[in-house]
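User: Teach me something about this protein's shape.
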Amino acid sequence: MGRMIIQGGIIVSSEDAVQADLLIEGEQIAGTLAHAVPRPDDMIIDASGLLVLPGIIDAHTHIQLDTGIYQTADNWEIGSKAATAGGVTTLIDFANQIKGKPFADALAARQAEAAQSSIDYAFHMVVLEPPHNIKQIEEDLESLLGLGIASIKLFTTYRPNYHLDDAQLWHIFRAMPSNMVAMVHCENDSLVTDATQRLVEQGKTAWTYHAESRPEEAEIEAINRVITLATLPVGRSKVYIVHCSASHSVFDVKQYRDEGYEIYCETCPQYLLLADSVYAGDKPEHFILQPPLRHEDNRRCLREFVQAGMVDVISTDTCDYSLAQKQANADFTKTPGGLPGIETLFPLMYTLFCDELGEPVTKIANLMTASPARIFGLYPRKGALQVGSDADVVLYDPEPEGTISHKDLHYVADYSPYEGMRVKGKVQMTISRGEIIYRDGQFLGKPGRGRFVPGQVTS
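Assistant: First, the predicted structure itself:
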């Protein structure tokens, strides 16, 4: 693989955006030059008028997901292809602990599934069965670091498959290595169970009642409880609150962070673009997810919090269930939860924040490149265009204008929750480790070319 020069584009980092040439040698970034002098055998890419960004990192995906109840309709070949079309060059997905077996077995099983990915990937480990012995928890979590897993996923809900009680959470936080991050899905299981049971008793199981079954108070309470458990014993546990749907959640995380705790906050496009009014519409099943969509005022406030720098990462929490799966039971308690979203992540966020709200592209790109890479130990290999970084690059044309149509997307869902939404700009080219894998609407990658990227978070 020879040299590549991306000429004349606006090179975007988390700090600035400057017009320059980007030099790629083999699989890595070789430099940023005001005017690169080409050699006869260099590949020249004209990026005039284009934004040249680090490859997008989707830090929260569920590709080829099997919950034990539902299985998404996609696989890693399909999921990574959709990602490529959206400028995503790294996926951070999940490996579920196999009960009764070491973490290494779960990772090996997940890596075997991901072997068909066309882009690079990393994993968070879902802890489902922590041992009773605290010393054993410490040893098990320490072993993950040696496997290249720098983050774990914990759940406060979803009995009996995923739920961990407060004592289990507390012991895990006490046992965690200082250079590990705990991602936590925060919803008070008792409140969710009670709200759902009351709706069922009243015969209110139609899709339109979904949001009522998981009130925002359940999320807010669980976040505060989790952070208390994480910070009281040792005061140093790194906690990442996933998919904050309530603006109050983001506010609370900031309060803890202002007190000096290392707490990170994630939200998703669905909570920034959609509101619970859709459950009264003609396609409520399209929007079944956990946590559910919230009211319009909440959506506006979440946007303001992103603009104020109170959110660390925007990712998708993507789940590519087919429309047939969504419509199989007209009962929200029997409908798989989750929305497809990898391919539309950056275009929608660029449109909302940069085009409509006037935020600098550096700020918004950081939430999907450098910030997740730093938190999960992939920086500067990923999330940057520095010398020595992997040559993961996206060329984004900010000028075209169009609308989202599921017919143009590469999912298998056969619908998009963002159907008909305006989009400003489009991904013109996606480069993964120096190889063009998407160009002008054509997928050029190959299944299986993706690699596992180990995470290594510093203390």
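Now, about its shape. The chain has two domains: 3-53+387-411+424-443, 55-375. The longest helix spans residues 216-231. If you'd like, I can walk through any region in more detail.
User: That's plenty for now, thanks!
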